[in-house]
Write a structure and sequence with these properties.
The protein is an alpha/beta fold and 724 residues long. Helix 2 (28-53) runs antiparallel to helix 12. It contains 25 helices and 24 strands. The strands form 6 sheets. A 7-stranded parallel beta sheet has the order 1-8-9-5-4-2-3, sandwiched between helices. The protein has a 6-stranded parallel beta sheet with strand order 14-13-15-16-18-17, sandwiched between helices. The relative contact order is 0.09. Strand 4, helix 7 and strand 5 (210-216) form a beta-alpha-beta unit. The chain has 3 domains: 13-364, Thiamin diphosphate (ThDP)-binding fold, Pyr/PP domains (Rossmann fold), CATH 3.40.50; 382-582, Rossmann fold, CATH 3.40.50; 596-723, Rossmann fold, CATH 3.40.50.
């Protein structure tokens, strides 16, 4: 019979309960501040539900009524410089942090609200209503609330989507030498999401000052937490990752504050992340003004029991018991907050012309201008003003060097001139510069700024996104293979790519993502793809595709300087190519949106990029066609060099688009469509294309070679065109 030895977890896991003595010892100003914040949020949320019932909220109205205690209690333990983000149900968290920033001493019970509080509530209501005076000019609405000045860095509509971003904020706090902390709020559903669990692990490994605040409101839409997991005490996840964890009754704001105060001290002292599970209850359904019992997944008895534990009533009772205020004072404050919301509403809404008594509409002047629809998808590139742009030959000396060594050299140069540049990815700190040597020597030269990550692309690129949005750092992320982008698709496309536009068009997102295409390397279907076609059709990203080492220097420098997220594509066929490289000048930038004519010709325009530039030139020489070969260099929709393309098409009247990868995810598909729309009158024939097969590359050397294009496929297409 084997001996069973009980194992103990290393991280503490405790439950905090506020006693009567705690309530007696709480400073009067703290309890009154707690009460006023709770009531302002409650009145705000009740007004939003009223608007939703009247059809005046376009989109969801995820009410937090009932959950205010967790938000207010936790935020009272934070400072102005601490940062928070939250989920789709985040009005209460956003308002609590903003109110704490504006009025850290609380609000007067007299109801004489400061102007900045009125302005906060007006802008918040306008944002939720989709109006121009909102924080993001109405683009974010109910689920995307951001006010960076107050430390509210953005709520999020993707369950668990904001968790890695908050880790990036925490990393920036720590790297900058502050004792600030980050808090990410999410619900019971997100506690089971991969990005959340990946971030638990990453934050614990790096001892990041981040609190994972789980608002366990018992239901993910209509699914009870006990149906969704075998361990309904969600804070139990913490010790498994080595994270100190607290459990608390979130309907008790003081208990929540006491737990949060302990967690904040733990983080400020450098002990790493914390988890707080606050058990709360949303009084209404997932969205809208009806209780869950109206949809059959909760009982009225259950709802009544939770409402009897209302956080505002809880605080009010202790205020009255201690004689800190009278019932008339509290009732007067409720009336004042309700009146304030009516007053604010009158600034946005007006009686519906010809409507029934009480019917309202949004004032037409409050709507955003429709012409604002695409403003801010990307930045205006003003960051390049005064930049050394290379339009001819680079200055200084030249030498022969390998492509991959040039990558390491220019990355090192940028890190030496800009302390905000940080490199992160799997194995970038080992193996003499990662799996291909692209970060060779950087770990020793820049300790603390070359971060080898766990295998968790969703978490670490999201963390990098949080770094970029923080504004103090410029992360350069390496994905070993482009296929791994789809492991991190939420962070790349829903978060990083959309952030600037979603939050009003002014947020910089200076992030560089390097990845390689490995067709021909024998790594098979899941390590070989060219992602350009998919990324080019996703908003927010810029894409560069260097075909030689000199271009790599200029394009990488531009990518780092750019305030937009930039995907830098590399190809394994180029890594070991020896070519002329700069020996002195590693500081020049290539202009954004400028292609390169690699060969002039009059009979055919060939558009290509990356390694296919080399193979296309070989094929043109073999066949002897009079073709003009244009290396696109910039591939995203906003950066295509239409001027160079137009000039060539009007000269040749024929176009061939050449790429290596699969036809299904083709980059050339959308490009061909755009060319025929722009230049149809100058085309003498349909646009021709060279792509790989439909299938992804296989491991078999023969099948792999049959799946993608190189010199031979381009030559065959040129011969076909010549014969027509």
């Amino acid at each position: 019979m084997p001996e069973a030895r009980r194992l103990e977890v290393a991280a503490p896991w405790v439950e905090i309960v506020a006693t009567e003595a705690d309530w007696d010892e709480a400073p009067p100003e703290s309890l009154l501040g707690m009460y006023t914040q709770l009531q302002v949020i409650r009145s705000f949320e009740a007004y939003v539900l009223e608007l939703a019932s009247a059809g005046l909220i376009h989109g969801p109205a995820h009410s937090s009524i009932g959950q205010e205690g967790g938000a207010v209690g936790s935020v009272l333990a934070l400072g102005a410089g601490d940062t928070i983000n939250g989920s789709h149900r985040g009005h209460h968290q956003f308002l609590a942090k903003a109110l704490q920033y504006i009025a850290p001493e609380g609000l007067p019970l007299s109801g004489a609200f400061p102007e900045d509080v009125e302005a906060l509530l007006l802008r918040s209501l306008a944002e939720i209503s989709g109006l121009d005076r909102g924080f993001s000019h109405g683009r974010g609405g109910s689920m995307h609330l951001q006010w960076k000045e107050a430390g509210a860095i953005g709520t999020n509509a993707i369950v668990g989507g904001g968790v890695p971003l908050a880790a990036g904020s925490a990393w920036a706090h720590k790297q900058s030498g502050t004792d600030r902390v980050a808090v990410t709020y999410f619900g019971d559903g997100a506690a089971n999401i991969g990005s959340t669990l990946e971030t638990f692990n990453l934050a614990a490994a790096w001892k990041l000052p981040i609190c994972f605040f789980i608002e366990n409101n018992q239901y993910a839409v209509s699914t009870n937490v006990r149906e969704a997991t075998g361990e309904a005490r969600l804070s139990a996840r913490g010790p498994g990752f080595g994270i100190a964890s607290w459990r608390v009754d979130g309907m008790d704001p003081l208990a929540t504050y006491l737990a949060m105060a302990q967690a904040v001290q733990h983080m400020r002292e450098g002990h790493g992340p914390a988890i707080i599970e606050a058990n709360v209850y949303r009084y209404f359904h997932q969205n809208g003004p009806f209780p869950g019992s109206a949809f059959g997944y909760r009982t009225k008895t259950e709802e009544k029991e939770w409402r009897a534990r209302d956080p505002i009533a809880h605080v009010s009772n202790h205020i009255l018991r201690r004689g800190l205020a009278g019932q008339a004072d509290l009732d007067g404050f409720v009336k004042a907050t309700d009146a304030l919301m009516d007053e604010i509403g009158s600034m946005i809404f007006e009686p519906l012309p010809g409507g029934k008594p009480g019917e309202r509409r949004i004032k037409p002047s409050e709507w955003p201008d429709p012409s604002f629809v695409d403003v801010g998808v990307r930045g205006d590139l003003s960051e390049f003003d005064g930049t050394q742009l290379l339009t001819g030959e680079f200055s200084g000396g030249a030498k022969e060097g390998r492509f991959v060594d040039t990558i390491a050299s220019v990355m090192g140069r940028r890190m030496s001139t800009d302390e905000s540049v940080v490199v992160l990815g799997e194995d970038v700190h080992r193996l003499r510069g990662g799996t291909d040597g692209a970060t060779k020597g950087l770990k020793d030269e820049f300790p603390g700024r070359v971060l080898g990550t766990p295998i968790c692309e969703n978490a670490f690129v999201g963390l990098a996104g949080g770094m970029a949005l923080d504004g103090r750092y410029k992360p350069v992320v390496e994905f070993m293979y482009a296929d791994f982008m789809w492991v991190a698709a939420d962070q790349l496309f829903n978060q990083i790519g959309k952030a600037r536009h979603m939050f009003g068009g002014a947020d910089n997102v200076p992030l560089v993502l390097r990845t390689k295409i490995a067709m021909g390397a024998g790594y098979g279907s899941q390590h070989s793809m060219d992602p350009a076609g998919i990324v080019a059709t996703s908003p927010g990203w810029r894409i560069v595709a260097p075909s030689n080492p000199v271009d790599y220097v200029g394009l990488f420098n531009s990518a780092v300087r750019c305030n937009d997220p930039v995907l830098v594509l590399e190809h394994v066929d180029l890594y070991n190519v020896t070519d002329t490289v700069p020996s002195d000048d590693l500081d020049f930038c290539l202009p954004v949106g400028k292609a390169a004519v690699r060969r002039e010709g009059a009979a055919l325009t060939i558009l290509t990029y990356l390694v296919m530039t080399k193979y296309t030139l070989e094929a043109v020489d073999q066949v002897g066609v009079d073709a003009e070969v244009i290396d696109l260099r910039w591939l995203d929709r906003a950066s295509i060099d239409w001027e160079t393309i137009e000039k060539s098409v009007k000269k040749t009247n024929n176009v061939l688009i050449v790429e290596q990868g699969a036809t299904g995810t083709s980059y050339g598909g959308w490009l061909a469509d755009e060319i025929q729309r722009r230049f149809f009158d100058w085309l003498d024939a349909p646009i021709e294309r060279v792509t790989g097969s439909e299938a992804s590359p296989s491991i078999s050397k023969v099948l792999e070679r049959a799946s993608f294009a190189r010199t031979e496929e381009v030559a065959a297409k040129l011969t076909e065109i010549e014969g027509k």
